[in-house]
Amino acid sequence: MLLTHLPFLLEATLVTVGLAVASMLIGLVIGVFTALARISKNKLLYRISSTYVSVIRGTPALVQIYIVYYGLPQIGIELDPITSGIVALSINAGAYLSESFRAAIQSVDKGQLEAAYMLGMTYGQAMRRIIIPQSIRTAIPPIGNTYIGLLKETSLVSVITVTELLQMTSLLIAKTFEPLTYYLIAALIYWALSSGFSYLQSRLEIRVTRHVRQ
After folding, report:
1. How far apart, in Å, do the first and last CA atoms of the chain sit?
2. Comparing C-alpha atoms, which of 44, 151, 152, 28 is closest to residue 98?
3. Integer angstrom CA distances of residue 2 from 64, 162, 181
4. I need a labelling partner for 1 at 20 to 30 A (CA). Which of 20, 99, 118, 211 fits?
5. Highest mean pLDDT among 39-43, 72-76, 205-209
6. What CA–CA distance (Å, rounded) separates 169 from 188?
7. CA 69 – CA 81 distance, rounded (Å)
8. Residue 35: which pLDDT band, with cuts at 50, 70 and 90?
9. In the structure, what pLDDT confidence band is assigned to residue 211 with cuts at 50, 70 and 90?
10. What is the pTM (predicted TM-score) of this model?
């Protein structure tokens, strides 16, 4: 019976990974711009970005998913379940990633920025060419942790009928009446995905650190 259902679990796993990767990529873009806004001297940008981070970090991801899927149609914005899940998870990840980026950027010695100015660079050029590249090494660990958390949070989109790993597991349990077996399998798959990414992250950290030392 399990072998018969394995293809369904693998297909749902691909959906889970797709949700996590898509949300992470969009979240990275949101996070970078939000971090830059948070350290900007522009008061309006600072207030908007700070409010965004505060609201997202202060509310459950599940509520954010409900707002995107069930709430937005009331103002004329209707999204399919998968798109709703990606939008909600991206917005959520962006807020956490922005704090990681902000801390990494601010960890770079301020003298680096002053030196860039002396070379005739603008603020934007200094950030792109000097500050951000140096901050990436510091940001890798928290970014990796955010992705692992995001991978597990994809299970929340099962509440809006996205057939990802947890939803498929629930469907198979309803058919087989074997909750222990299938929940354990789902847990092992999540663990394997997280462990695999953690390994890749550690290799990337070693490579980046080695490059910096050279």
Report:
1. 55
2. 28
3. 35, 22, 9
4. 20
5. 72-76
6. 12
7. 7
8. very high
9. low
10. 0.92
The pair of structure tokens assigned to 17 is 């990974």
pLDDT at 15 over 70: yes
Question: Which residue type does 175 have?
Answer: K
| Single-letter amino acid, residue 71 | G
DSSP string, 97-141: HHHHHHHHHHHS-HHHHHHHHHTT--HHHHIIIIIHHHHHHHHHH
Please give the single-letter amino acid code of residue 106: Q
And the tokens for 42?
């522009």
CA atoms of 123 and 132, how far apart (whole Å): 12
pLDDT at 110: 83
126-131 LR contacts (CB < 8 Å, sep 24+): 127/36, 131/105
